[in-house]
Amino acid sequence: MDATASLQEGPRRTAMRRLEPAAIAGVMSREVANFRTYWRGTTFSSVLEPLVYLLAFGLGLSATLVDEVDGVPYIQFVGTGMVATAVIFSSALPSMFGTFVKHRFQNTYEAILAAPVDVEELVTAEMLWIATRSAVYGCTPLVVTFFWGLDPEPGMLLVPLFAFVTALGFSGFGVAMAATVAKIDQFNYVTALFVTPLFLVAGTFFPIEGLPRGFQVAAQLNPLHQLVELVRGGAFGFEAVDLLRFAFLVAFALVTWRVAIVRMRARLID
Amino acid sequence: MAAIELRDVVKTFGPTRAVDGLDLEVPEGICLGLLGPNGAGKSTTMRMLTGQAIADQGTLRVLGWDLPEQSKPARAEMGVVPQLDNLDIDVTVEDNLAVYARLYRVPDVGAAVDRCLDLARLRDRRRDAVDKLSGGMRRRLLLARGLVHEPRLVLLDEPTVGLDPQIRTELWRLIGDLKARGTTILMSTHYIEEAERLADEVAVMHRGRIISRGRPADLIAEHAGRQTAEVYAPPDRLAELRAGAEAAGLRVRPAGPAIAIVGSERADDGAIPREAVLRAATLEDVFVLLTGEEAE
């Protein structure tokens, strides 16, 4: 830096660091300002959708086909598992569509990146915001299941944390997908190939032990399955392996975070 | 020290050289109009200055910061008014401003918002959602948003493109106020009148490089002389007149349904037809002569 004295004037003339909290908070404040205008609709769908599944499967199947799974009433089995469903629906999908729309149609990122914010901070803020929202929405099925006899347990206090970390991973996944697809309708492929299979083979509606061996192994790589097991651990008792499950979710979030940054940088910076 | 210094900057997109050996220096305190036709490389240059495009070659320095490595602190001291309206339309006017005040780390967000509301003359609409504003109000808000941190350098990317004349005049007044306060401005435009009215200096950009630069009056004197003769006639007659004028060493450019014989004060007797309309030479004459493109 050898700028002249006139250019060195001013209180803000300092080098800036990576991942500045002020930049991340600024981007999140934009999300909060927008969220205040549409929270009713988003909250309605994010809460109602898992509840419909909970009632349809939990009540429907327990009344006709399944009483219990591993000694747990079926509605409670599904209710604890539905946390994962609420998390993926409120993280992967909003991050995919929201990111794509803000980039392609609203030119929002062009404006944000003209300010002292870099792509890493932008992606981090987007992920943190979606994960925060998702952690709240994710707890709804658990709370509802209290009305069907699920007893509150101290371990359940960790469920928002589990949901948050998992949602971070899926929001990173969504951002990366949004930075990869060329057209918005290509999200149909993403949903069909990733979101739906992950949701169905997570152990939400049935224990994965009943699946063929190959599916059981594949399910271990499914972050939603790890979340389902952690939530059930919080409700019915943790096991030592749950530490590994949590570590897996942290690793999932870290990997998708970095991939999302790389993909978004390629998309936003020419 | 210049506010902006670009040296031998090249930016390619596949086989296209959008910016091709660009040298540009913008001294502090002036308004430089970057005038060029669509595809001249103006927007790519603007994107490089905000770190959203990385040059393949050359050096870029903004307010003393080297780009792209020090793009972030450079952006903290510059304001950008984009070509496209990217306001958050469901959010209130004041929240739009407050968000950007935070992004620019303004210490007193409330005071910055109030100042911008006054600047944009939107104080009484502060709690309205942006989609309730008229087109002119939205453009004023967009301009004020770019000034929320009182930048020392402002990049205006085609600030009035697509606007009706009344809104354009309103914005010109605001940009004029900004100039009067001594803010350095780099304004890309393809509107001749805009460059003529607002810019202290104009740089004509064509095919990714600056092909001429100077004060508008100097550019006109250098390239177009004092006087231009416009002739309206059937196409065959225009072709004949054009050939005659060019044979007499005059420069001729198309002007819609007419031809414009530039520098007509230098013409020999009889070289300018009697039906010609004489007028003072303009920056538009310069632009068309240099770029070969019709002006807007």
Describe this structure in words.
The complex is a heterodimer of chains A (270) and B (296). Chain A has helices at residues 5-8, 21-64, 74-105, 108-114, 119-138, 140-145, 159-178, 187-200, 213-220, 223-236, 241-268, and strands spanning 68-69, 72-73. Chain A is mostly helical and 270 residues long. In chain A, helix 7 packs parallel to helix 11 (241-268). Mean pLDDT of chain A is 89; it is low at 1-11. With 296 residues, chain B is α/β, with parallel strands linked by helices. Chain B has two domains: 2-220, P-loop containing nucleotide triphosphate hydrolases (Rossmann fold), CATH 3.40.50; 225-280. In chain B, helix 3 (93-103) crosses helix 4 and helix 5 runs parallel beside helix 6. The longest helix of chain B has 16 residues, at 165-180. The radius of gyration of chain B is 22 Å and the shape is globular. At the A-B interface, helix 1, helix 2 and helix 4 of A face strand 1, helix 2 and helix 3 of B.
Largest sheet of chain B: 6 strands, mixed
Identify the strand order in the major beta sheet of chain B. Answer: 6-7-8-3-9-10
- Number of helices, counting only DSSP H or I runs of 4 residues or more of chain B: 10
Largest interface: A-B, 40 and 41 residues
Q: Output the number of helix runs of chain A.
A: 11
The CATH superfamily of the largest domain in chain B is known as P-loop containing nucleotide triphosphate hydrolases
Strand order of the largest sheet of chain A: 1-2
Instruction: Categorize the overall geometry of chain A.
Output: elongated
Note the overall shape of chain B: globular
Quickly count the domains of chain A.
Answer: 1
Task: State the CATH class of the largest domain in chain B.
Answer: Alpha Beta
Any low-confidence stretches of chain A, pLDDT <50, length ≥5?
1-11
Task: Quickly give the CATH architecture of the largest domain in chain B.
Answer: 3-Layer(aba) Sandwich
